[in-house]
Design a protein that fits this description.
This protein has 211 residues and is of the alpha/beta class. The protein contains seven helices and ten strands. Strand 7 and strand 8 form a beta hairpin. The chain is globular, with a radius of gyration of 16 Å. The mean pLDDT is 98.
């Protein structure tokens, strides 16, 4: 049985649509959170993920921020939050999401200890994990356990124009690390069209892109 595992869509509907096309067909979907914020399509991303058959969604920190209505930051991320929150209206769909599930010998959760976990992060594992949050796709092992980071669908922090996700085959135990390049100009064009602050547009414009 094949399960597509993805995270950190961040309101990027074109990237999400392409990921779904690339991953299909699979029997199950698991979203590790942070569907909302940053991009202009938080509502539409919630709806599309809800339409997937056999899809489980985990809460991310940005779902928590939207529910609380509070985001403590003084940098550009607060400007994204202030722009995106008033346009969001799918609160019923995100208010009761689980923080973690256990399947196939793995714990699926958004992150561990609210940390950004990177390939070189020192962390003592106590079980096998699938996580997201840091927007970097990788696999690491210690203490006899494995951690996979799904990376980001909608806001890759290595190359902004790359979509990452994972596919777990529960029959064989194999995990495929998936990624592909896409044209992110449609995202930035929509941000300009609906009036995002220039600092938010500059954030995306300034990121490295895979040639």
């Amino acid at each position: 049985m094949r399960t597509a595992i993805f995270s950190d869509v961040h309101g990027n509907l074109p990237a999400l649509e392409l990921m779904i096309l690339d991953a299909s067909p699979v029997e199950n979907w698991i979203c590790l959170g942070d569907i909302v914020n940053y991009g202009p399509w938080s509502n539409e991303c919630i709806d599309l993920i809800a339409s997937l058959e056999n899809c489980t969604v985990i809460a991310g920190n940005h779902e928590d921020y939207f529910i609380s209505g509070q985001y403590e930051s003084s940098n550009v991320s607060k400007q994204f939050f202030d722009f995106c929150l008033p346009r969001f209206n799918r609160f019923e769909q995100i208010k009761s999401l689980p923080s973690a599930i256990v399947r196939h010998g793995f714990t699926f959760t958004h992150t561990l200890n609210n940390q950004n976990i990177y390939p070189d992060t020192k962390i003592a594992l106590d079980t096998n994990y699938f996580i997201g949050h840091s927007h970097h796709q990788f696999k690491t092992e210690n203490n006899g356990f494995i951690l996979y980071n799904a990376g980001s669908v909608g806001q890759n922090r290595k190359y902004i124009n790359v979509v990452n996700y994972l596919v777990l085959d529960s029959d064989t135990g194999k995990v495929e690390m998936k990624g592909f390049k896409y044209d992110d100009s449609i995202l930035i064009d929509e941000m300009r069209r609906i009036g995002y602050p220039s600092s938010c547009i500059d954030y995306y414009d300034s990121k490295a892109r895979l040639k």
